[in-house]
Amino acid sequence: MLAGFVMISMMLVIGCGSEPEEPIPDVSGIELSNKLVRFEQLMAGIDTNNLAEEVQKLNTDFTQFYSVYFRNVLPFDTETPEGFLDNLQGYLSDKRIQELQDTTSIVFKDFESVTLPKLNHAMKMMKHYFPKFKAPNFYTFVSEYTYQQFIFNDEGRDGVGIGLDLFLGEDYPYKQLDPNNPGFSRYLTRTFNKEHLPRKITEILVDDIIGRAPGSRLLDQMIHNGKRLYIMDKVLPTTPDSILLQYTAEQTKWVQENELSMWAFYFDEELFYESNTMKINKYINPSPTSPGMPDAAPGRTANYIGWKIVKAYMQKTGSTLEELINMQDLQKIMDESRYKPGRRK
């Protein structure tokens, strides 16, 4: 299979050129009405001598998040008030939880001054491109390494939960917590940091807008994921491609330098119309590698090609983001893009 990557380098193919740089929209005049709730700080500050009263206040002040947090994130016994309070009391007095809360507090002591402005700028960009978009309320929390981010209905707008304990940095010993947990594999935990946080939060909001892919073929998935990356690139215009793609700098360089070889690989292996999940999964979902490609190739290479196809389509057609989202004929996007990767100079 690797032969294709050797032979293709001998070919001379003229590409369609690079997409011209667009000026970053000025969104300074856009006002947001969303809020930030540091729920993990409120939890850490609970007076356990008045636990019932403190918990009731949290329920009153943050009803929707309270329900999601204590029913799904921390599924304590909610059959009886007494059982719930007993479980919560044990949780709050657990030394491991206290240490985790302390670590999170230290790592994110600058959340309001550094991370939140980046998130809210992304929300303004979302509002710029999607005028009906309403910026979500943000709720930070500690989940004991269970949830990184999620969306929920927060009384008329979206709420976004942000599990800060899954953003403590790539050097945090996640693997030691559960060595057999594939969710703590190095290629994943490498992105568990503050730099990737705005990107990951933006992704779930974009996914909420674009929905699911309209088909199960690799072509459907890769172009749908290309739509996501294209929109995120617009919303996060100063974010490096390595963070957008969740690759290392070396992996990003590899896909940029081997675009033509990857394109040829998918043709040669007749994968574009393949719908067998086992065969295409690692090309579109998180994976350390792309099977059949050189060892240096990261996973999700089909998404990168999908992104380039969508870029070419948007350049050719001049479509708006709304029109791109509404275009469900993904074969037509590929055909009209006239995408043709060129050799890097």
Written account of the structure:
It is a single chain. This protein is mainly alpha-helical. Mean pLDDT is 92; it is low at 1-18. Strands 1-2-4-3 form a four-stranded mixed β-sheet, sandwiched between helices. The radius of gyration is 22 Å and the shape is globular. The protein contains 18 helices and four strands. 31% of the residues are buried.
| End-to-end Cα distance | 25 Å
Q: Strand share of the residues? A: 5-15%
| Poorly predicted residue ranges | 1-18
Radius of gyration: 22 Å
| Oligomeric nature of the chains | single chain
By DSSP (H or I, 4+ residues per run), the number of helices equals: 18
N to C succession of SSEs: HEHHHHHHEEEHHHHHHHHHHH
Describe the structure concisely for a colleague.
This protein has 18 helices and four strands. By secondary structure, the chain is mainly alpha-helical.
List keywords for this structure.
single chain; 345 residues; mainly alpha; disordered N terminus; four-stranded mixed sheet
Topology diagram in text:
Layout: H1 3-7, E1 36-38, H2 39-44, H3 51-61, H4 63-73, H5 81-93, H6 95-107, H7 111-129, E2 137-141, E3 149-153, E4 158-163, H8 174-177, H9 186-189, H10 197-210, H11 218-235, H12 241-245, H13 249-257, H14 259-268, H15 277-284, H16 301-317, H17 321-326, H18 330-337
Helix pairs in contact: 3-4, 7-10, 10-11, 11-16, 11-18, 16-18
